[in-house]
Specification:
- The protein has 563 residues and is an alpha+beta fold.
- Helix content is 43%, strand content 11%.
- The chain has 21 helices and 14 strands.
- Strand 3 and strand 4 form a beta hairpin.
- The chain is globular and about 70 Å long.
- 35% of the residues are buried.
Length: 563
């Protein structure tokens, strides 16, 4: 707090001297600190990790110059999680968006540099309607601002999240097709390596891939401007990984990438294996494993990687894909009727934002249905069977079945519109994707889901590797033990989901609102915790249940985990 007070005094002094740059009096606490709520798990650490300090006078001077204005008249905070986001207003009437990455957003320099280059590349090469970057810095010490930032145009249109519920069912379904066709344009880019996209000058020569696009002449302007460099995805840099000597690409093959993930986690677990504020609270349950267990199972997974990679080049070729395509990152064209989307006007995309963390990866792992349309139990291929025994259902059951079927139709519409046939028809693709996702974070999530994902892969091994029996990694007794642990894990996952819904909680027990609301929720959950503990059959079980309660400071989990 002393540091913040000194910074506030410094800024106030600059404000008095340079009043012409700031056309408003900034609330520095709100600008620099997280103020939207509190966490039931590691509250102070979450808030500190989401704080960003910078020289607001220097930023406003730079921003005003970028849009040919004399002053910033307001900075309204409109988002704060992995990034601090502001609506910036100028004396000319122009509005822009400023974003400052927090320590959770990704690696210094690489996160911002890659996103800016990716936006420029997609605007120029595919004509994507992404807001233009007006000013940016990926190195905090390079400008007087003292922090990384991106200043970009304000996206035109309406946020899809604001109008989605008002869209008729037919339009919502057709927009799944529109969005899929939009994303499919990314497949026109035939990259040569796996990694993240950068301006060439932002990556040291030893870290650049030698080529960029298949068949592109070395003398082409693109080759002199852009390159594929180290992956900027957060999991390669989180915690102590940022300072480790590990393989971050670029990679020539999918196998090299997948093995780099497993090797990275093995090294980090062996050398550190520390708790983190983004850990899954159920990672401490019995069966989640100690260091040696994690390293052993990641080694077994590494041996399977060559078999898990599909044979066709179209299934594994390097593909760039939007990493976080939800309704709050999509803007649609508005109708003349303010605030509404007219059914008479096709719903079209006016802009897609937030390309932070975008990377070029194997097609079969990259191509995913976005959360907006993703649902469960959708078979591969182009066909979607009707609900089973529909005629025998009651009236209310039929309505539920219809809604579930509509969700699956939208999921399938996106798939068919976005995915090439080789990926769409691929067997056991979801199982392979889920397993690779878990391999990135076994220590964070625990071994139980990872081992069960391996078990699910072995159940479909004949489809993955025809005429070959699956490896035997567990004895019958070990498999039975795993299933018992998995049942306990599922119970605790369900408990967490029920409590999240009951108390309207976000990730890691986030409570939106002021301190008084937080204290009310915390008091109510304390009673729930006591009830949960008392369900233990003896003193030892009750002691363990007190440690397993999901809304706790996970940074203290060293006292719980098996070592």
């Amino acid at each position: 707090m002393k540091c913040l007070s000194r910074l506030a005094a410094l800024v106030r002094g600059k404000f008095r001297k340079r009043r012409q740059v700031l056309g408003f009096r900034p609330d520095l606490h709100s600008i620099y600190r997280y103020t939207s709520g509190h966490w039931l798990c590691n509250d102070q650490e979450h808030r500190d990790a989401r704080s960003v300090t910078f020289d607001i006078v220097a930023f406003c001077r730079l921003a005003a110059k970028a849009v040919d204005a004399k002053a910033v008249t307001d900075m309204i905070k409109i988002g704060e999680s992995l990034n601090r986001v502001f609506l910036v207003r100028f004396d000319t009437g122009v509005e822009a968006i400023a974003r400052f990455p927090t320590s959770l957003a990704g690696p210094p320099h690489f996160t911002t540099a890659s996103e800016v280059a990716t936006i420029d590349f997609l605007r120029c090469q595919l004509g994507f309607s992404i807001p233009r970057v007006l000013a940016w810095s990926s190195r905090a010490k390079d400008t007087d601002v003292g922090a990384e930032f991106i200043l970009m145009e304000k996206a035109p249109g309406l946020l899809l999240s604001d109008v989605l519920e008002d869209l008729p069912s037919y339009d919502r379904g057709m927009f799944a097709k529109t969005l899929g066709e939009y994303e499919r344009k990314l497949l026109d880019l035939r990259f040569t390596h796996y990694g993240s996209l950068y301006y060439k000058n932002d990556v040291p020569a030893p870290l650049r891939a030698p080529t960029l696009i298949e068949g592109l002449s070395p003398d082409d302007e693109l080759n002199s401007k852009f390159c594929i460099g180290p992956i900027a995805r957060r999991d390669f840099w989180e915690a102590e990984r940022e300072h480790m000597d590990i393989d971050r690409g670029p990679w020539r093959t999918a196998e090299d990438y997948m093995k780099a993930v497993a090797s990275r986690e093995q090294k980090w677990i062996a050398d550190f294996g520390t708790p983190h504020i983004l850990d899954d609270p159920n990672r401490v349950l019995p069966g989640q494993g100690n260091r040696d267990d994690h390293i052993k199972w990641l080694s077994l997974y590494t041996d399977l990687i060559p078999a898990l990679i599909p044979p066709l080049q179209e299934q594994k070729r390097p593909v760039l894909w939007h990493p976080d395509l939800h309704a709050s990152n999509i803007f649609i064209r508005s109708s003349k009727k303010k605030g509404k989307v007219s059914p008479a006007i096709p719903v079209t995309i006016s802009s897609i934002i937030d390309w932070q963390g975008a990377w070029i990866g194997p097609a079969f792992l990259q191509l995913k249905v976005p959360p907006l349309y993703r649902t469960h139990d959708v078979p591969p291929g182009r066909l979607l069977p009707a609900p089973d025994d529909f005629d025998s259902l009651s009236g209310s059951e039929k309505e539920t079945a219809k809604e579930i079927h509509q969700q699956r139709i939208r999921h399938k519409l996106f798939e068919v519109s976005a995915f090439p046939p080789e990926v769409l028809d691929m067997e056991a693709r979801e199982e392979r994707v889920y397993l690779e996702d878990l391999a990135q974070s076994t220590w964070k999530c625990g071994l139980i889901p990872f081992r069960m994902a391996l078990y699910d892969i072995f159940q479909r091994w004949q489809e993955i590797v025809p005429d070959e029996d699956p490896p035997v990694l567990d004895s019958p007794a070990e498999l039975e033990d795993l299933k018992l642990h998995h049942a306990t894990w599922l119970q605790h996952q369900e408990l967490l989901e029920v409590l999240d819904r009951e108390f309207d909680l976000g990730e890691y027990g986030h409570v939106m609102g002021d301190r008084s609301k937080f204290e009310m929720v915390r008091a109510a959950l304390w009673k729930k915790k006591l009830e949960y503990i008392e369900q233990g059959k003896d003193d030892e079980t009750r002691r363990k249940r007190s440690l397993w309660w999901p809304y706790r400071d996970t940074l203290r989990d060293d006292v719980v985990l098996e070592r």
